[in-house]
Write a structure and sequence with these properties.
Elements lengths: L2 H26 L3 H23 L5 H9 L26 H12 L8 H29 L18 H8 L2 H18 L2 H24 L5 H19 L4 H8 L3 H4 L2 H14 L5
């Protein structure tokens, strides 16, 4: 794209949308965490609609269940002709993570004196409950009904490279969505490197929308985080870097760029108070 078009998009339309969002929050007195969930829900619905449009053969209850009863974006697994899962997950497969998430959110989060520590503990608890707990149990539910869906999370702590973490171990929903809508067409037209950078740029912008915009601050930090992930993948590809320490250093240490302090303080802490997770 010409630089003038890129500059216009980011400097004009994004800034205008951000100002309008902040104005709506202040004038209508909408809690910032409500605005966050509304934006996340809108992005989720848009992604589902785009995938259903591409998979025109998916109709009936398969399309309805994919759209409303599954958080993943693996639309091909919902085809009536998809191969059945031979060994489905048991119903209790996510129970341990669900229990740990409840203890983190309604127990450990309230034990810290520093608000950022409470917010981060509560966020970890919510991820454990949803992504590792309920969503994994839901994957087992659909697998036992013959659908070859896969859990969103696949033991991310075992990743030894940044590429392994993002491609197959963390949140397969975004991986499947970005592969279908961005990575595959861009790689076919240009190359894999361009596809990789555009995927992480899109991820950064999506997280800006649901993190920085509701917080009204921290703009650019989520995008910087995902740019660092793309750079990390390029480095490990060029110099064959790998190992748990390497992956942890690139993925986990800069995570405060992604979930920056304004988001934790202005969005997550009020949400945790709403859940009665904090005193």
């Amino acid at each position: 794209l010409p630089w003038r078009l890129v500059e216009t998009f980011f400097c004009r339309y994004i800034s205008e949308f951000t100002e309008m969002s902040v104005m709506c929050v202040e004038i209508m007195e909408i809690p910032r965490w409500v605005w966050m969930w509304c934006l996340a829900g809108a992005l989720f619905a848009l992604a589902k609609a785009l995938l259903l449009q591409k998979e025109a053969a998916l109709t009936g209850w398969h399309a309805l269940a994919f759209a409303a009863a599954w958080p993943g974006m693996d639309v091909q697994a919902w085809r009536p002709s998809a191969r059945r899962v031979e060994m489905p997950l048991p119903w209790y497969s996510g129970l341990a993570a669900l229990t740990a998430g409840v203890l983190c959110t309604w127990g450990l989060a309230g034990c810290w004196s520093h608000p950022l520590a409470s917010g981060w503990t509560g966020m970890i608890g919510l991820v454990l409950m949803l992504h590792f707990g309920l969503f994994r149990m839901l994957a087992g539910f659909w697998q036992r009904r013959g659908l070859p869906v896969r859990p969103l999370m696949d033991q991310p702590l075992l990743a030894v490279t940044v590429a392994e973490f993002w491609r197959r171990r963390w949140n397969r929903a975004f991986r499947d969505l970005s592969h279908a809508l961005i990575a595959r067409p861009v790689a076919q037209r240009w190359n894999g490197t361009a596809a990789r950078w555009l995927v992480f740029l899109a991820s950064g912008l999506a997280h800006e929308l649901v993190i920085s915009v509701p917080a009204g601050a921290g703009y650019g930090l989520p995008t910087a985080y995902f740019a660092l992930q793309a750079a990390g993948m390029e480095c490990e590809k060029r110099w064959h870097l790998r190992g748990h320490v390497w992956a942890f250093a690139v993925i986990a240490l800069p995570a405060f760029f992604l979930f920056h302090p304004p988001f934790v303080e202005r969005v997550m802490l009020p949400f945790l108070h709403f859940l009665n997770a904090l005193p």
